[in-house]
Amino acid sequence: MGITKSIAQLKTGEHAIIKSFKNNLLSNRLIEMGCLPGEEVSICKTAPLGCPLTITIANYELCLRLSEAEAVLVELVA
Fold first, then answer.
1. How many Å apart are CA 60 and CA 78, to the nearest integer?
2. Are β-strands 15-21 and 40-46 bridged in parallel, bridged antiparallel, or unpaired?
3. pLDDT above 90 (res 24)
4. Against a cut of 0.85, is the pTM above it?
5. In whole angstroms, what is the distance from residue 32 CA to residue 50 CA?
6. Interatomic CA distance for residues 57 and 43, integer angstroms
7. In 10 A of CB 17, how many CB atoms?
8. What pLDDT sits at residue 23?
9. Above 80 in pLDDT, residue 73?
10. Which of 8, 9, 12, 19 has its CA 20 to 30 A from that of 48?
11. Would the CA dihedral through 14, 18, 24, 26 be positive or negative?
């Protein structure tokens, strides 16, 4: 098993697999945006103040608020 952390804790270029969500209220919205458990994500860009950040998921780029990124738990890919 790899290390579990939130998307917000990933560094640019790190790859991870979505495992679960911390916030049930946000989980439905995130799933609708394509953040499905089992999908691989990586951080593309982060705004100078840390919010928003851009992730790559399912061959497209998605911008997330920091609060949304903190709600998605991922496991690092070796």
1. 22
2. antiparallel
3. no
4. yes
5. 23
6. 9
7. 14
8. 86
9. yes
10. 19
11. positive
- pLDDT above 80 for 78: no
Compute the CA torsion angle 26, 24, 22, 8 (nearest 10 deg).
0
**Would you say the C-alpha torsion 41, 22, 34, 36 has a positive or negative sign?**
positive
Distance CA 5, CA 32 (A): 21
Question: Could you write out the three-class secondary structure of the chain?
Answer: CCCEEEHHHCCECCEEEEEEECCHHHHHHHHHCCCCCCCEEEEEEECCCCCCEEEEECCEEEEECHHHHHCEEEEECC
**C-alpha 48: how far from its chain's center?**
18
Structure-token match 């990124």, residue found: 69
Percentage of the residues of the chain whose pLDDT score is greater than 70: 99
Whether 22 shows a pLDDT value over 70: the answer reads yes
| Residue 52, pLDDT above cutoff 90 | yes
